[in-house]
Amino acid sequence: MAAPDGPILKDGLVENSIGRFVPTSTPQGRRVRPYRGLHSPPEVMRGIGRPLRRSVPPENKVVEGIEAAIKKVELSDGMVISFHHHLRNGDLVVNMVLDAIHKMGIKDIGLFPTALFPIHEHLIPYIKDGTIRWIEGSLNGPLGKFASEGGLLPYPVILRTHGGRTRAIEAGDVEIDVAFIAASAADQAGNMTGAVGPSAFGAMGFAFADAWYAKKVVVVTDNLVPYPCTPISIPSTYVDVVAKVDRIGDPEGIGWGTTQITRDPKMLMVARRVIEVLDAAGYLKDGFSFQAGAGGTSLAVVKYLGDYFKEKGIVGSFAMGGTTGYVVRMLEEGTIRAILDAQAFDLEAIQSLTRNPNHMEVSHHHFGNPHTGGPITHQQTACFLGATEVDIDFNVNVNTHSNGYLLHGTGGHTDAAVGSEVTIITAPLIRGRIPVVRERVTTVTTPGEAVDVVVTDHGIAVNPRREDLLESLKRAKLPLVDIEELMKKARRLVGREMTADVGDEVIAIIEYRTGEAIDSVFRVK
Amino acid sequence: MAAPDGPILKDGLVENSIGRFVPTSTPQGRRVRPYRGLHSPPEVMRGIGRPLRRSVPPENKVVEGIEAAIKKVELSDGMVISFHHHLRNGDLVVNMVLDAIHKMGIKDIGLFPTALFPIHEHLIPYIKDGTIRWIEGSLNGPLGKFASEGGLLPYPVILRTHGGRTRAIEAGDVEIDVAFIAASAADQAGNMTGAVGPSAFGAMGFAFADAWYAKKVVVVTDNLVPYPCTPISIPSTYVDVVAKVDRIGDPEGIGWGTTQITRDPKMLMVARRVIEVLDAAGYLKDGFSFQAGAGGTSLAVVKYLGDYFKEKGIVGSFAMGGTTGYVVRMLEEGTIRAILDAQAFDLEAIQSLTRNPNHMEVSHHHFGNPHTGGPITHQQTACFLGATEVDIDFNVNVNTHSNGYLLHGTGGHTDAAVGSEVTIITAPLIRGRIPVVRERVTTVTTPGEAVDVVVTDHGIAVNPRREDLLESLKRAKLPLVDIEELMKKARRLVGREMTADVGDEVIAIIEYRTGEAIDSVFRVK
Predict the structure, then answer these.
(1) CB distance B239–A50 less than 8 Å?
(2) CA torsion, points A380, A382, A386, A390, in degrees to nearest 10?
(3) Is B48 touching A (CB cutoff 8 A)?
(4) How are strands ordered across the β-sheet holding B109-113?
(5) CB A377 to CB B57 under 8 A?
(6) Between chains, do A49 and B48 touch, taking CB under 8 Å as contact?
């Protein structure tokens, strides 16, 4: 395994505009710019061009299995390959492709998935033996732990928001050599969808940018259908090879870790408080739109919102997915007019996509790329999001735990927070014996400038820059509390804050959606 | 009006691989490559990049009227502007925009429409006074006549196929400064569609490439709808301004010149012969797919095909539109499984698009760009297309009349012909007193290498390279005739062929779909 430079060390970092320290370049060759604020413009006027190809009819792109596909696209040492995570913890494709790459003796792969899950712990031996050189993408669970302990050094993982990842591809920050795109149905020319078939996973929003820009595109499917695939999410024009395999995934794994509504009475109370906040601030009226995070409290908010709208006869505008049955219910009851869906979190979302014309599949480019004419997140009234930590500057951490371990991806958190008129973070004041509200978050995922309200089981804190909200909530006699008070209360309840015991080596960079580095994550000692 | 060089003259042309003479550059700055064969690869590996933008929420892009939009995108002298022609002869947007440009004193505009129609004769004064400098696009009727008489000199019109025009944009051959995209519904962020609204025109296949690549995009709509527009054909991410106007078009004009089935008994006989040819050659079976031209004979073929499939219980695969009620009928009767629709030719097509999930909107990139991973036309079994002239090398002309006048666009003719397994040209042997089958076509639109069968009211000619077809049709005792015999018969019936009385100045270039010049059109004396 090549290691052109040692790991990035703390004393080589520069300070960004919110006082966090970040690198300016990485051993895998990324130039990094420090975060300067919410809306930095693109660095160049035009993105990278799409690859041009030559098509000669008649064409049949089907090959049997992954090895044949790898040969056909001439995948070789040092190339960058990408994957989407719509099959989440039920995904079989990433492991299958890396098994083949390993078997074929290809080395030094740059792995550029949207996100990896516990099922991908399988890859650790391939990191150790040099098959995989670096990873840029969200690491959920074991691979995050492995990275935190230095397993990927000297290469830092780069974590991007959903909108930021498509931005990075479109701007040419990351060039993909081969995109492997799991599809639950595809035809011989490569027209594909995730909406139908035995391994259906719904909208395939992550895959669009990879298909548009990768030098070679391999569709991996267990369901070859007669031409034309119906519906067509991504067209044949972006496809080089269709690899037929036995099984792309286990649909049971799609909802992993996301679709259980909370059963914790104090978090159900927090969810109710969110409705009260929105009500008091006057947001709950016809035309209201929202995005909910994947956590159990956010799901509870959606449920209560549906109940509220139904009771009051309000018709909202749209819900932006990750889509769940709770949102589908609102569409079907007529309390929202449309679902814009970039990824499904449960079976009801998958089924609704093909059934209801007002449930529309969108790309993550459309969802959240800020360097466009305007993504969906910039039209949202509200979002309800979770946190592992929140600090007194309203900065939010969703990536690391207070012990310093990198265990979660960024997802659409930052995109939603920055885009929405009102961004509400829901969190318990204390989780286990660990304070959630702190003086300083271990890692900044979403900057406090983009956060308006923090609703906890010990009161509601409003970002002082939102005087209007503060005024409305006061009038409604909601239990307001200063965020510093929350921090102090948490300290009082559990003693001092946990401080991560970390070293000097940067194991990950948190990239803000415009491509600037908002924070670094350090190796856990 | 700037005229950097004189017109391109005959003696400066070079010969291409089918013996036609073409320029190597033009005064508007295009480099032109001579045609070398059906499947020339792209010249470069990557296309031009998309423009990057900066989006800051909340956004409302709506302005009142065209002048406000022109100011907002800073349209200025010498810029290139583009339009789609989905509203065909009912389009009000092109004239409206050029009226505003003229009123505002902007000059030297490069006009890059997909096609112009008789209603756009209105632009002639703007060409004469220097508001419009050059035009690249299909000219149907009066503007073609005007160009043929030298009205646009020294600038040649460049006519492209539907697939070839998106190729030219994606490769960066033509850079669009401002795309004006008519939409029958759009929201404040610019999400748009042609499928619904009082001026609905159906699929908006032409507009995708313009939206993707134009430096600025203005949506022009008479139907501002609440966010999000439903359905969304082109997303807000590509849009800078939404211009609200009173009326974008007259839906009655959409079907102009295209949707009447022929009433000519000899052409109805020709249409029946096409079915016999396909039947004899063994093509008419489950999985059959086709594209029909917009002419009255092609429509008759579709009708007979629908009858045949219904009678025999055959289920075809797909029809590629220009979509008509005849194709919709097949989908609804279950004799085809899907319609892939890039443009509508009548009201039934428009209505079906929103009603039937197997009727899918596609871009012209997907329809026919040969420099991709594979467009739809490359998957077609058959196409039935018209001609103004056919010659003994099976070259087809659809652009000029035998008197030399440029009166028609290329459309998808060449894309369909090159892509399909079997390409059938339908034509009367003589039209008026003018032979259609000739020794040499006045202008080559589609090269004979891509044409398999010519069906006339005086017999069926098969391209000798298709020995297999010849054999099948002989066995079926169809009235085969050598193409030279057809030519001679036409001469016998009407005396000598008409020869266009043209001068030395090139008024138009016919660009083949890969970007190579296949022929030149000369000024009519």
Answers:
(1) no
(2) 110
(3) yes
(4) B62-64, B241-244, B216-221, B178-183, B80-83, B109-113, B132-135
(5) yes
(6) yes
Give the tens place of pLDDT for each residue, A383-393. 999 999 999 99
- Which residue in B58, B217, B379 is closest to A373 by CB distance? B217
End-to-end CA distance of chain B: 23
Contact B373 A48 (CB under 8 A): no
Which residue ranges form the domains of chain B, and what is each CATH number?
Answer: 61-136+174-255 (3.40.1080.10), 265-502 (3.40.1080.10)
Q: Say if residue B231 is preceded by a cis peptide, omega within 30 of 0.
A: yes
Closest to A54 (Cβ–Cβ): which among B41, B227, B358? B41
Is B513 an interface residue toward A (CB < 8 Å)? no
Q: How many CB pairs under 8 A join A and B?
A: 218
Residue A298 and residue A292: Cα distance in Å, rounded? 6
d(CA A421, CA A383): 8
Q: Is the pLDDT of residue A3 over 70?
A: no
Mean pLDDT value across chain A? 96
Q: What are phi and psi of A306, to 5 degrees?
A: -60, -45
Is the pLDDT assigned to residue A1 strictly greater than 60? no
Complex ipTM tops 0.90: yes
Nearest-by-CA chain B residue for A57: B378
| B183-203 mean pLDDT | 97
Report the alpha-carbon distance of residue A199 to residue A185 in Å, rounded: 8
Q: Which chain A residues are closer than 8 Å to B362 by Cβ?
A: 232, 235
A46 touches chain B (CB under 8 A): yes
pLDDT of A2: 40
- The predicted pLDDT at position B257 comes to 59
**In this complex, do B237 and A366 lie within 8 Å of one another by their Cβ atoms?**
yes
Q: What is the pLDDT of residue B267?
A: 96
A47/B45 CB distance under 8 A: no
CA dihedral for B485, B487, B488, B494, sign (positive or negative): positive
Q: How many angstroms separate the Cα of A173 from the Cα of each of A14, A29, A34, A160?
A: 20, 10, 15, 12
Contact B337 A230 (CB under 8 A): yes
Q: How far apart are CA A506 and CA A379, in angstroms?
A: 35
Query: Please, which residues have CB within 8 angstroms of residue B351's CB and are 6 or more apart in sequence?
Result: none
- Mutate which: B208, B372, B516, vs A, most A CBs within 10 A: B372
* Band of residue B1 on the pLDDT scale cut at 50, 70, 90: very low
A28-62 per-position pLDDT tens digit: 999 999 999 999 999 999 999 999 999 999 888 99
List of residues 6+ apart from B32 with CB closer than 8 A: B22, B23, B24, B25, B26, B509, B511, B517
CB neighbours of residue A348 within 10 Å: 19
Q: What pLDDT digit, counting tens, does each position of B298-354 carry? A: 999 999 999 999 999 999 999 998 899 999 999 999 999 999 999 999 999 999 999
More confident residue, B273 or B254: B273
Cα separation, B485 vs B340, in Å, equals 38
Give the minimum alpha-carbon distance from B193 to chain A in angstroms, rounded to a whole number: 13
Q: For residue A1, what are its two tokens?
A: 């395994």
Neighbour-count burial of A494, counting CB atoms closer than 10 A to its CB (0-12 exposed, 13-18 middle, 19+ buried):
middle
Look at B228 and A287 and tell me if their CB atoms are within 8 Å.
no
SS3 B289: coil
Give B485 to chain A, closest Cα distance, Å.
31
Q: Is B356 on the interface with A (CB under 8 A)?
A: no
State how far the alpha carbon of A374 is from the alpha carbons of B69, B221, B239, B313, in Å.
Answer: 17, 18, 8, 49
Of B217, B232, B337, the CB nearest to A360: B232
Q: H or E element: which one contains B171? A: helix B162-171
